[in-house]
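Field reference: sequence -> structure
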Amino acid sequence: MSTGHYKDEAVKFLSKAENLEVALDVAELVEGVKDKLVLEFWHALENRISENQSILSDWSIRMDSDQDLLQGSYPGLHCVPNAASNAQHYLSFAIKRGSGDRIFQGVRWNKEMKTPFEQFSREVPQVGQVRDHLQRPKNRD
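Structure field:
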């Protein structure tokens, strides 16, 4: 049976008067199931990273609140270097949920950078090194 046929049959079944009340109850519960699965994912990720905290001893791990994880704008898990509290500019690592439940991960600055890249990379040589490393051709074995 094709997926389209299955869905058509399910809609016919659920839209019958005798099944409609149950269908509406299930539809209401589905949002709760989705929320439960979203939170389970994020908390499992946080637990997994926490298990490796000894490797990341120079980093602080912070998870957004459950409410933000469900309703916030780009919520997720943030890994910030402990040295950041003494730094004006710093990089952090984040895993975030975007629109459509897409997951994004990457490195970001703590605030918008208005300094041209070339000037900033002279002031903070590691930035240029990271760029150079990322732009190196990959070995194709």
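Note: DSSP finds five helices and four strands in the chain.
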